[in-house]
Amino acid sequence: MGVHARKAAFGLLMLILAISIVASGCSKSGGNEASGEPSASSSSPAASSGGSSDAAKPEPFEISVFMQDPGPIPTDDNRIYKKIKDELGVTLKEEYLVGDAEQKLGVMIAGGDYPDMITANTKLVAAKAVIPLEDLIEQYAPNLKKHYEKVWNQMKDPGDGHIYWLPNYGVYQGEYKTTQYYGPAFFIQKAVLKEFGYPKVRTLDEYFKLIEDYKAKYPEIDGQPTIGFSSLAFDWRDWPLRNAPQHLAGHPNDGGVLVDPNTNVATLYEATDVAKPYYKKLNEENAKGVVDKEAFAQNFDQYLAKIASGRVLGTFDQRWNFQQGEDSLISQGKPERAYVALPLVYDPNTTDYYMDRPVLNLNNGFGITVNAKDPVKIIQFLDTIIQEKWQKLLSWGEEGVDYSVGPNGLYVRTPEQRKQQEDVTWKQANKADALYRFLPKLEGKYPDGNMEGPGNQPDEFFANLKDIDREVLSAYGFKTWTDFFSPPPENRISYPAWSIDLVEGSPAKVANQKLKDLAFKYLPKAILSKPDGFDKVWDEYVQQVGKVDTKAYLDRVNEILKWRQDNWSN
Amino acid sequence: MQSSVQTKDVSPQPVRRTDSFWIRMVRQRQLILMSFPMVIYVLIFAYVPIWGWLMAFQQYRPGFSILNQKWVGWYQFRFLFEDENFVRVLRNTVAMSLISLVLSFVTAIGLAILLNEIKKTGIKRLIQTISYMPHFLSWVIVTGLVSTALSTEDGIVNVVLMKLHLINEPILWLGEGKYFWGIVGASNVWKEVGWNTIIYLAAIASVDPSLYEAAEIDGAGRYRKIRNVTLPGIKPVIVILLILNIGWMLNGGGFEIQYFLGNGQVVDWSETIDIFVLKYGLKIGNYSLGVAAGIFKTAVSIVLLYAANTIAKRLGEERLI
Amino acid sequence: MNTARRGIRTEPLIFHTLNYLFMAFIVVVTLYPFLNTLAVSFNSGLDTTRGGIYLWPRIWTLKNYDAVFVTGHVFHAFGVSVARTVVGTVAGVLLTAMVAYTISRKEFMFRKPITLIFVLTMYFSAGLIPSYFLIKDLNLLNTFLVYILFPGAGAGLISAFNMLVVRTYIHSLPESLIESAKIDGAGDFRVFVSVVLPLCTPVLATIALFVAVGQWNTWFDTFIFASSRQNLSTLQYELIKLLSSATNSNSNPNISSSQAKDAASMITPLSIRAAITMVASIPILFVYPFLQRHFVAGLQLGSVKE
Predict the structure, then answer these.
(1) Which of A70, A501, B319, C163 has its CA at 20 to 30 Å from residue A162's CA atom?
(2) Do the chains contact at A18 and C195, CB–CB below 8 Å?
(3) ipTM of this complex prediction, to 2 decimal places
(4) Which residues does chain C have within 8 Å of residue A109's beta carbon, measured at their own beta carbons?
């Protein structure tokens, strides 16, 4: 019985404990409720420091922002946000996306709980969550009006002709010229080119010949087997597997379709004779042991690890995708294992069209929601930010701190200043990268001759080149990496097809997903099959694609291409 | 005391029959007070939102009220069932559920029993704590390690098999569909065996020690004690967990694991209902498809639960209801 | 006689040797992923990209942890996580046990319907949007209470699964103990508090662990219901924010050339994920050893029973 009593007392104690904790929990949350608003705003950027010292400050104004992007998330005392607050009186109360955008937007739209400003998503237009901006810009935002003048028609929604979003990229001033190439291409290690005396490489056959020869000569790199050609088909990263044929055929990046520049009509290239020679070639190379057998079963980290090990001689990809692997090679002191981007074509007489002119980044950037109490002030804030002074602060940073002005008026950075740009934690406190990414921005050359950002400043570019880079460039007689590509012609008016909104949940979108699934299933199978079995797999693939409602997909694409042709010409 | 008083009150037969419900209510008022608030809680938080199931019969677009939507009847269900892959997807789901179910039950019970045989408490606790640590790693990390271990490039599995001369060249484990279910089952065990053991260890702890003593007096060895005392002692827990898990037969033994390990080459074996719904529902902006699939899964679960419960009842085992 | 005795002695020896060997195997296999993640968390991110990190970092760095703590929100969020875990666990365990007791009583007239109501909740989900409306209508958006009340993954006031586990355990208790308490005049509540609860310590410790881990690990409710209130942010949510921010780089595959140049960064998703995993899981790992001693409580009670 003694034991019972003790146990009972213990139980009672637990209960009391529980009740008291629950009670305190409740009162705690009650407290939060009461003090909620002020404390929420005090946790916003820069509120804690330098509050009321200056008298001539603009009236404080808070803008709540939702970014459909995970960051980098700035620190509370971020230098750039502090400057914005101090000089413009604007506090940005930002929320960044963490989980799944579809879920978060789904409940946000369902509940109508929008912030003042939000980054673009076609769902928000469909739900009438954002307000038309054209009148606001006309009346209150002369700088934005000037900035977007040339592309004004392109910004209009194909559905109702209103402007809902302020595109964040694609409006250039001055001559457009980049030094590094980040887009799609066939990549090959600098060491391979060097080995064979920097030959001209134009076609697939030439490319794979070099890789075969190098692999035969060096079956191992750093003690591990050499991998001739690797690739990737993982999750949403589908382009290394799917996108090469359109470029080989001399077309620019239109996503899943080829668009005839004369008729402006789109056709599929997947599972057609445009695509077949490429996969057939990969199949042959696989039989020779050049293709990485694991390529289409590996995950992204494994792919990066292979690139970073320096033993992958070639790949088809977009450079930014495997950039980390390449950065690792540089930091290991193996710059010769880094890559050169080559614009290969099927037929040497075809002009390559990998590199394109900048396009307006449609359905991107910021919009203003129906919940914003003072849209005028918001558009005025954006109108201020588009000015050169603020743009330079966002891209280059502060003069004297992040860069200095050289004798010729051009901006230069010390090695230390360059180095700290690579430090993620430093950037969180000293840059506003995520915000800058979504804001309307000046691209190209400023009137004073400086480029929009350090990355494209020619002197900065040359200062970063390694010996092997100089050797490669001079062997080919080029100054920058983009010289490997044909200069891009003027964009087709309706270009690019990849930015076409296929409409949520529509048959076009279903068809698009099915095409992707079939590519992921059949293309690796075809590549890895015995050479005499290739045609059988390919025929099956073509047959399966034939069952997909590709008409719904093409109809939607063509409808918008036509709309663009009619409405985008100035 | 109270109850005896009340039974005295209701002695006449006819009155008892009509009043018995209310009288029992009064008599059991403490039980009612202890349970009803929680019943109300669960009705509000779990049952009230069921109106959302209406979405399964719509082409739901967020931003408009549930009644202001396009009604599409059984379209979403047809989309699901009429897809030529549906049978395959269903097969994969059930197969991976079954494999994971059997493997995780056998391994967890086995490990619990073996752990229980370790008499040094400190060591036992240490092993226990270590064995459940993978539970706290996310599937991204675990599947990353699985992929590395199975890689044809220096993956530990291929290296060991080659050293043992069991194979002549590395096997592309994740590129061949026939291995996929087994890999999923094994990965599940790896990550969760320690965690799954906890519940059985608690159950074993509740077995009356006098039963062991009695068995020992009868001359029972280790194995007979396990068979005749430990296993019967934890049987009710095993049965209940089995019934509950059978109800989850359409969950495919996880979601992320297939999502991260699957690839185009093994899609015929790796794609489950949840992944299908993710691809053709949420990812392309069709919210309704997921709801329809959810309703289908619920219906199947209820049938399976009912069947399992009935079987348990027939066998005279612990049962759900 | 002599040989028989030797037989009895060697049999356990073999068994124990094999058993310890097997346990050593289990320890190696289950410890490895954790140690590997630990090593990665202390290794330079760019170097990790090369692969080949097993149990020891190749290039030591604290950068990955720097990145976790840089915003300073992590500490406050840690407090919120502890608070929700403690409150949620204590309330959850007691309420679960209480309802479990009522449905373990064979004479209880609502036993079956109540059991059914709870069991079914395990097999359906109403979907996110209706749940959001419910929380909004109850004015629970951006409150601490939503963490306790919302029945999401592992959280919520009561879990049907745990309840059934406790009920099964109560069934295994000797009915005579409850009966004798009732004969002494105890009502059901007193029986529950003074007889059943103390006897249930092992199973309560088990479900306490389940609930605590569920409460600790979930970030979804913060994401959906409380994301706009920084002072309600939990540790897991802060960490998941960091993780997706590091994983992000650039998620538009079709983005044109000049737009993708800020994609590369020195801290890789792989390495920051490792650091985050450590920060997130080490605190909760200590809960189990603390609860473990209750697992033998049943043994002691057993001897009291007779």
Answers:
(1) A70
(2) no
(3) 0.86
(4) none
